[in-house]
Design brief:
alpha+beta; 60s Ribosomal Protein L30, Chain: A; globular; single chain; 1 helix; about 15% strand; 3-stranded antiparallel β-sheet; two-stranded antiparallel sheet
């Protein structure tokens, strides 16, 4: 296993790794809505928040020499059921 961390994405407290590479698969830890360049929390619409989280994932994948176009699965947690447009 290989553990990768970068300053281009939010560093998680505790014993979490941003990326774990195992047998060619890349596992990326959960991402918050923090823009690391401006050190600000992205607010606004759910679309803006989602885009920021995906940008963070993309930055982590680039450091791991991977591409977001090869992502197999993404899990999204919505903190407020009222934000779900069903």
């Amino acid at each position: 296993m290989e553990y990768i961390n970068t300053l281009k994405a939010l560093h998680l407290a505790g014993c979490y790794s941003q990326v774990v590479v195992c047998n060619g698969m890349v596992y990326v830890s959960g991402q918050f809505l923090v823009d690391t360049e401006s050190a600000s929390m992205e607010g606004g619409s759910i679309e803006k928040q989602t885009l920021q989280a995906l940008r963070n994932v993309e930055q982590i994948l680039l450091v791991a020499n991977r591409n977001i176009r090869r992502v197999v699965r993404v899990t999204v947690y919505i903190s407020d059921i009222n934000l779900w447009e069903g």
